C-alpha cells in the first residue's frame, strides 16, 4: 500500500495547509476563534480549518481511505471505529499543542499518520514555525532534511531527561523531567537529542500514531505501561518511551503502582 503513496506530495500538502490555515492565525486569533470543546481542551479556527483542508486534499492522494481527525472525532466519536477495520486510514492532528498555539507559544505542530490494516506505515510531524518536517516509513528509518535521526543512548536513571506530566515519582531519581504541552514536540525531542524518555496518559491515536513510528525507526523502545505493543487506536492506560528495553524497564518500575 505504501508504494502507492508519494511521501513528498503529502509533505507538500502538510506544508501548504500550515501556510494557508495555521500560520496566518498564529498570534492573530480573536476570542471568537477559540473555544473549549471539552473542559480543559481548546479548539481554534486553525484546528478546524486545517483538518478540513487536509481531509479534502488527502482524499486525492489515496482515494477510498478513511480519515480519523481529532476535530471530526470530537464531533462524532464513531469515526474512531475506522481504526478497528482493515484498509487505509489517515490519522490527523491538525494542530497538536492547541493550548500553546492559542497562547502564542511556538511549541505546536501538525501530526499525520497513514495506518494500513491497523499498522502505522508512515508518519509525519511538521513544525510550522521552524519548518522542520520529520518523516518515518516503516523499515526505512526516521529522517529530517536528509539527516537520519537516532534516539539518545540509555544510561543510569540519574542521567536521564524526560517528559512526564505527573513527575513526583521520578523526583530525585532522574536528571530532569517536565512537560511543555505538545506530544509532537516531545517526539521530536526524543529523536533529536533533547529527551531520553517520555510518559503519556492520554492515548488518542492522532497524538501518537506517527510519533511512535518515528521513535521506533530512530531506534527507540516504546510500549504501553503493561508491556504490550502500541497500536494506533484509542487506549486506556499509559505509554512509556525510552532509548532501549533496559531503560524502559528501569523507568517503568518508578512509574507503576
Reading the helices and strands in chain order gives HEEHEHEHEEEEEEEHEHEEH
* Total beta strand runs: 14
Distance between the termini: 42 Å
The CATH architecture of the largest domain is 2-Layer Sandwich
Basic shape: globular
Structural class: alpha+beta
Would you tell me which CATH topology of the largest domain applies?
A: Fructose-1,6-Bisphosphatase, Chain A, domain 1
- Determine the CATH superfamily of the largest domain: Fructose-1,6-Bisphosphatase, subunit A, domain 1
Task: Explain the overall architecture.
This is Archaeal fructose-1,6-bisphosphatase and related enzyme of inositol monophosphatase family. One of its GO terms (molecular function) is inositol monophosphate 1-phosphatase activity. Keywords: Magnesium, Metal-binding. This protein folds into two domains: 147 residues, 2-Layer Sandwich (Fructose-1,6-Bisphosphatase, Chain A, domain 1), CATH 3.30.540.10; 99 residues, D-Maltodextrin-Binding Protein, domain 2, CATH 3.40.190. The protein is of the alpha+beta class. The protein is built from seven helices and 14 strands. β6 and β7 form a beta hairpin. The model has no long low-confidence stretch (mean pLDDT 94). Strands 3-4-5-6-7-8-9 form a seven-stranded mixed beta sheet, with helices on both faces. Helices cover 30% and strands 26% of the residues.
Amino acid at each position: 500500500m505504501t508504494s502507492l503513496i508519494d511521501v513528498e506530495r503529502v509533505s507538500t500538502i502538510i506544508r501548504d495547509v500550515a501556510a494557508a490555515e495555521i500560520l496566518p492565525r498564529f498570534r492573530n486569533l480573536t476570542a471568537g476563534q477559540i473555544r473549549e470543546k471539552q473542559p480543559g481542551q481548546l479548539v481554534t479556527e486553525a484546528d478546524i480549518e486545517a483538518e478540513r483542508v487536509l481531509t479534502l486534499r488527502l482524499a486525492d492522494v489515496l482515494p477510498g481511505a478513511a480519515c480519523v481527525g481529532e476535530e471530526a472525532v470530537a464531533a462524532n466519536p464513531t469515526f474512531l471505529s475506522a481504526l478497528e477495520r482493515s484498509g487505509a486510514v489517515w490519522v490527523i492532528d491538525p494542530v497538536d499543542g492547541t493550548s500553546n498555539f492559542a497562547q502564542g507559544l511556538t511549541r505546536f505542530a501538525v501530526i499525520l499518520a497513514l495506518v494500513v490494516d491497523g499498522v502505522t506505515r508512515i508518519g509525519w510531524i511538521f513544525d510550522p514555525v521552524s519548518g522542520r518536517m520529520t518523516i518515518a516509513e516503516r523499515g526505512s528509518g526516521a529522517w529530517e532534511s536528509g539527516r537520519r535521526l537516532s534516539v539518545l543512548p540509555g544510561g543510569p536513571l540519574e542521567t536521564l531527561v524526560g517528559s512526564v506530566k505527573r513527575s513526583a515519582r521520578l523526583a530525585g531519581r532522574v536528571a530532569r523531567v517536565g512537560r511543555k504541552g505538545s506530544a509532537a514536540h516531545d517526539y521530536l525531542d526524543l529523536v533529536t537529542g533533547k529527551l531520553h524518555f517520555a510518559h503519556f496518559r492520554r492515548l488518542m491515536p492522532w497524538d501518537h500514531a506517527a510519533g511512535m513510528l518515528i521513535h521506533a525507526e530512530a531506534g527507540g523502545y516504546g510500549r504501553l505501561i503493561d508491556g504490550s505493543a502500541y497500536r494506533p487506536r484509542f487506549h486506556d492506560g499509559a505509554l512509556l518511551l525510552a532509548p532501549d528495553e533496559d531503560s524502559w524497564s528501569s523507568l517503568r518500575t518508578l512509574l507503576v503502582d
